Amino acid sequence: MENKHLPIIQEILTGRRLEIVEVAVELLASGGARSLTMRAIADRVGVSEAALYRHFSGKSAIMSAVLDVFEDVASDVLSGALEDSDAGVLDRVGKFFEDRCARFAENPSLAKVMVSEENFQEDPELAERLLQMMRSHRRVIGKIIAEGVESGEIRGDVPEKELFRIIFGALRLLVRQWCLGGFSFDLKGEGKDLWSVLRRMLSPPPMTAGGKSEMRNPKQIQNANESN
User: Fold this and answer.
1) Distance between CA atoms of 181 and 125, rounded to whole angstroms?
2) First-residue to last-residue Cα distance in the chain
3) How far apart are CA 99 and CA 201, in angstroms?
4) What count of other Cβ atoms lies within 10 Å of the Cβ of residue 59?
5) Around Cβ 98, how many Cβ atoms within 10 Å?
6) Best exposed site among 26, 36, 54, 74 by fewest CB in 10 Å?
């Protein structure tokens, strides 16, 4: 097998485990979970099936290692957004958004795997783990959003959970379009442009002529809906 190491995976794994996980990512990206068999991995790596079991207990363990890689990368990107406390809230969320696009641009196969959650749905433990990762991201980004609402940098008339969905939904859709289109456009550039639009959407509305904001908080919106 010719080694063309995926940058992210090479940062985390070494040796034969690195080769096995790289092959697993490529198989998942090209054919989904059904194409990922111990025989297929062994053939690609150039070893016997028995040799694979010296490194991983089975297919689920290999797929768990794929999630390990993604979780490590995601934690690194999230930490970068949190640690830059001198930056404004929207700058920190933007750093997360653009860094995630940059990491995926460097590792298209991993990107394709991670926006195809169905790859992990057949194994309840893997599906639950993926769900917990999403919840962890929600807690971290939600904390930054709440800070921005409190400081007035982010609009307060939309619930935090919906703002989170807007950010992550836009990111996921962009990456999925990139994957489905054969990685044919500049993901980093498109990510930067998309974040510029999202930033304007997340910012508080402009002041009225009388110096008051047109923004309403979620309670005001709920009361208005109930009165209609």
Assistant:
1) 31
2) 66
3) 20
4) 16
5) 17
6) 54
Q: What pLDDT, on a 0 to 100 scale, did the predictor assign at position 3?
A: 41
What number of other Cβ atoms are within 10 A of residue 8's Cβ? 20
Tokens 């979970």, residue?
Answer: 33
**Mean pLDDT, range 168-186, rounded to an integer:** 96
Residue the block writes with tokens 């195809």 = 116
**pLDDT at residue 84 tops 60:** yes
pLDDT tens profile 91-103 = 999 999 999 999 9
Query: CA Rg, the chain, in Å?
Result: 21
- Which tokens sit at 28? 């998942």
Contacts of 157 (CB under 8 A, 6+ apart): 215, 216, 217, 218, 220, 221
Q: Find out whether 36 and 28 touch, Cβ atoms under 8 Å.
A: yes
Element holding 115 (H helix, E strand): none
Helix segments in 32-159, DSSP class H: 38-45, 49-52, 59-83, 89-106, 108-114, 124-151
